[in-house]
Design goal:
By secondary structure, the chain is α+β, with helices and mostly antiparallel strands. 45% of the residues lie in helices and 15% in strands.
């Protein structure tokens, strides 16, 4: 398990994001927590999301970890469905934190200015690393939308003009 995951103070994290009741309401509004059959609540669901990302668990390991800690009791397939359903909710939480801590990032939301995250990830086949591909993504942080995904060979550089 990741040291970062063990070091997290969940009560402090929930406090930074609002109260447990506020998280519950936002999760329901975003469609992440429509029924609580397998997950106790929004705080537990958020903990599962963090555990998946920070713990680098497989879905099967995450399901076992959650069951061991009495957070949720579900299969790896059900876990995947819950995590997928939580994506927009977690994006909204991040967007709210960004707007609170960095309001200038959202100053251009109603104009043509946008805050963009641009990334290039290397995908290399087994063997010599001379031949590889780049997966270029552009994400609009102010609108929480993926603008473009492009796969190129290693000769294409990252640039801000992608995704316009």
């Amino acid at each position: 398990m990741s040291d970062l995951l063990q070091a997290l103070d969940w009560d402090e994290l929930v406090g930074r994001l609002g109260s447990a009741e506020e998280l519950e309401a936002s999760a329901r509004k975003a469609g992440a927590l429509l029924r609580k059959r397998q997950v106790g609540g929004a705080v537990d669901l958020l903990r599962l999301c963090f555990a998946y990302v920070l713990g680098r668990f497989s879905l099967r390991t995450l399901a076992a970890w959650a069951d061991q800690r009495a957070l949720a009791s579900m299969s790896d397939v059900a876990m995947l469905k819950r995590l997928k359903a939580s994506a927009d909710w977690v994006g909204c939480l991040v967007s709210e934190l960004l707007a609170e801590r960095c309001p200038e990032a959202f100053a251009g939301v109603h104009s043509d200015l946008r805050l963009m995250a641009v990334d290039a990830t290397v995908v290399a086949p087994p063997g010599p690393k001379r031949a590889y591909w780049m997966v270029h993504t552009v994400f609009d942080l102010s609108r929480l939308t993926l603008c473009s995904v492009e796969v190129t060979d290693r000769h294409e550089a990252e640039r801000l003009s992608r995704g316009r």
